Amino acid sequence: QLQLVESGGGWGQPGGSRRLSCAASGDPMASYAIGWFRQAPGKEREGVSCISPSTGVMYYGDSVSGRFFVSRTNAKSTVYLEMNDLKAGDSAVYYCAARVTAPNYCSLMANEYPYWGQGTEVAVSS
Known about the structure:
Blueprint: E1 3-7, E2 10-12, E3 18-25, E4 32-39, E5 46-51, E6 58-60, E7 68-73, E8 78-83, E9 92-100, E10 115-116, E11 120-124
Parallel strand pairs: 2-11
Antiparallel strand pairs: 1-3, 3-8, 4-5, 4-9, 5-6, 7-8, 9-10, 9-11
């Protein structure tokens, strides 16, 4: 059973940067696509980014494209989300999620992912 743990959340200033980590255990991460999602109070869960098992495919949500960057190190069973030029609208609980898939596939659809972490909160304010 794959288990995911997010870390790196906290406070950030507008225009600043933070890096989130998603650490996997219980099963080798190499066969899993990883998605990052976020949910702010009163809002629906939003797909932020995803990365395929091979790292050949990455997608970003429109609101973060050009500012956020996803990467993974299968040897360390960790996926990272580098968040730059933070905005107040980036404040949310961020979740990583995983699904077994083909090497070059990932998706920003939350309902495709059966495994989820507990979330880490990011708050952006001045």
